[in-house]
Design goal:
About 30% of the residues lie in helices and about 20% in strands. The chain has 13 helices and 15 strands. Helix 1 (about 15-30) packs across helix 2 and helix 8 (about 230-240) runs antiparallel to helix 9 (about 250-260). The two termini are about 35 Å apart. The relative contact order is 0.14. Bound molecules: iron/sulfur cluster (2 copies). One iron/sulfur cluster (SF4) binds near residues 318, 363 and 365.
Length: about 375
């Protein structure tokens, strides 16, 4: 595989002109926008809209990143559409709350259909042989992926590769969690999905990232950068290096490299733009250790639920909205209102819980965190 070019550009705020100039500069270093799209093509912009959140909460791709990319595509005479399939809210609601819709309306960008879709075979896939892809994705000639730099409880990071998970429409995403609860295999499915969809370009919003209890309840952290490349594995590897995480700790990087989606080895990545070392934040709040599956030694199996990291509700923050209960993909639910009493916070049945952390992702009040029980800490 040829070396992957990755442009890193310093960008200290979301002032629209600053972001536009930064992305334009990045493109000038890896190939202008005209090398990724052609006049008259239908190009879908896929931001990360995990949930309908105000941009200041840094859960979602910032509207300024979306706006700058729209402008660059319009300059090429491209027909632009946009969409995502959030974890809980309907797409139209989440896109509006996250500030994306206002920009789309300003530039007359079409909302793509992410509420409906169809099954598409991917015979080359091992972990994902069939995907339920949104019509809005299938109708486009190409995709540009606008990811957000964030920590993630299941896959450690969420970035360029994981962003394509939102191309699966509706509740079908939750089914994948049930079908593939193992974090490594889930990551491999994400790699295959990205290889199948083949976005043409990946732009990562790292101006203000999310650390800690990501991907929805973490804290903002200034990383002051935008990362642009045609290689999603290289983008995520650059993200890892910036947060002092060896890229090989992340299964999407390892498998992505293995099956030729991209490069995670820095000897195969050509960095252009600003010096990566000036962005490194060693104390970025993320576990600096490899992603571990919730597999345990056979002799410890009876203790599994006392060992593996689990979601925990902070009662003082919980407003009893029940969103976590609705989002839980297992049946019967692993998080539920005891005796249907929604005057008290939901409780967990950890024996049923597959540790997908969807509940933690969707809680709008940062009331759920993932904690490793004492026994788990002892057994590592
Ligand atoms: S934990 Fe969060 S999502 Fe669940 S009921 Fe409480 S506030 Fe709502
Ligand atoms: S309780 Fe939470 S972590 Fe467990 S299966 Fe349900 S959504 Fe996933």
């Amino acid at each position: 595989m040829a070396k992957s070019k990755v442009a890193i550009i310093r960008c200290k705020n979301y002032e629209p002109e600053t972001v536009y100039i930064s992305i334009k500069k990045a493109l000038s270093l890896i190939g202008e926008m005209s090398s990724f799209v052609k006049k008259g093509e239908k190009i879908l912009l896929k931001p990360n809209i995990l949930a309908g959140r105000n941009p200041e909460l840094v859960t979602t791709t910032h509207p300024a990143i979306f706006e700058a990319t729209v402008r660059l595509l319009k300059e090429e005479g491209v027909e632009v559409s946009y969409g995502d399939s959030p974890g809980f809210d309907p797409p139209i609601v989440a896109l509006k709350k996250s500030g994306i819709t206002d920009i789309a309306e300003k530039y007359n960008v079409k909302l793509a259909d992410f509420e409906r879709g169809k099954k598409v075979d991917y015979p080359d896939g091992y972990y994902g042989k069939q995907f339920d892809i949104a019509f809005g994705v299938l109708e486009a000639d190409g995709i540009i992926s606008l990811s957000k730099m964030k920590s993630h409880q299941l896959t450690r990071i969420t970035g360029a590769v994981k962003n394509q998970f939102g191309c699966i429409y509706g509740l079908n995403k939750a089914r994948f969690h049930v079908k593939i609860p193992n974090a490594t295999n889930f990551s491999k499915m994400l790699v295959e999905l990205t290889k199948f969809l083949k976005p043409r370009l990946y732009i990562m919003d790292g101006v203000i990232a999310m650390q800690g209890n990501g991907p929805a309840s973490g804290e903002p952290v200034n990383m002051n950068c935008i990362i642009v490349s045609a290689d999603p594995v290289a983008v995520d590897s650059v993200f890892c290096r910036m947060v002092n995480l060896p890229p090989e700790y992340i299964p999407t990087n390892v498998y992505g490299n293995e099956i030729g989606l991209g490069n995670c080895d820095f000897s195969e990545i050509e960095l252009v733009g600003d010096d990566i070392e000036t962005f490194v934040k060693k104390d970025f709040d993320i576990p600096h250790k490899p992603v571990k599956d919730n597999a345990v030694f056979k002799f410890l199996l009876p203790l599994k639920n006392l060992i593996t990291p689990r979601p925990v509700i902070k009662n003082n923050k919980c407003v009893k909205c029940g969103i976590c209960v609705k989002a839980c993909p297992v049946e019967p639910k692993a998080v539920f209102f005891k005796n249907d009493d929604n005057q008290k916070s939901p409780i967990y049945d950890y024996k049923k819980c597959i540790r997908c952390y969807c509940c933690q992702e969707v809680c709008p009040h940062k009331a759920i965190s993932v904690k490793t029980p004492l026994l788990g800490k002892i057994f590592g």
